Amino acid sequence: MKKPFVIFYFLMIYALAELFWWGILLIRARPSSVPMIGGELSVFVFILLVGAYSLHKSINKERQLHLRQKNFLLSVTHELKSPLASIKLFLQTMQKRHLTVEQRNSFLDKCLQDIERLDDLVENMLIASKIDNQTYTFPKEKFNLSLLVDGVVNRLQINKCDNNQQTINAEIEPQVEIVGDKFTLTSVVTNLIENAVKYSGPCEAVDVKLFRKDDEVHLMVADHGIGIADNEKPHIFDKFYRVGNEDTRNTKGTGLGLFIVKTVLDKHEATINIRDNRPKGSVFEVVFG
Known about the structure:
Radius of gyration: 27 Å
Order of helices and strands: HHHEHEEHEEHEE
Strand order of the largest sheet: 2-4-5-7-6
Largest sheet: 5 strands, mixed
Number of strands: 7
Shape: elongated
Distance between the termini: 44 Å
Structural class: alpha+beta
Number of helices: 6
Strand content: 5-15%
Oligomer: single chain
């Protein structure tokens, strides 16, 4: 992407030099027309600089998107390869060794967890693709959001840690119903909780709350992880954007999760806000009106 910038800056310098040169020639030919030539030259330079700024901004945005897409492909490759390798290893072990029923069931449970991880990845990619192509219609119906959130929490729950604490603490008000697209809202809840778990340390608590307040439905997901810098908060819902430096980031992810979250919530006329948790971490709050 460096070549377009070199060509762009060369053309800009050449165009400005030409403008000033022709201005000098016109002033030499007609000294009495200095005010008119100066005014016209100023207008041309202003228009040229505004156009150059807009073009530079567009090229830079395209360069950043290209970098994110490149990192996305690398991330997807890793996200696909890791669970597949894990499933293959478990199945080969079951095939070649005589295991107890308890060991076989443990291996099968781990295989199912990896399959669910793959399923979530493929689902995110399909939803993002349909959103981009504007082929998804977001069919809406009345459903129980409490059951949906409870189901996602139970699926993502890592039951016990070394200190006997639950990873996800859920406070879900029963019988909270909304009108919306159950399929994509399941993806919203899944992505928010998965992100909170992903960016938290081992056995760090993730808090999930669902409640009614002032005729609105609130969903809050809070973690005690690394947090999000203020300068990154405006960009976290951009497609392919991931928090942190591309060279030092070591968490899993594709940069699609929060993009899907924001797009789906916009379609439901819901809002999402992010704030710092105390003493550390982040809080995402979704409000359905």
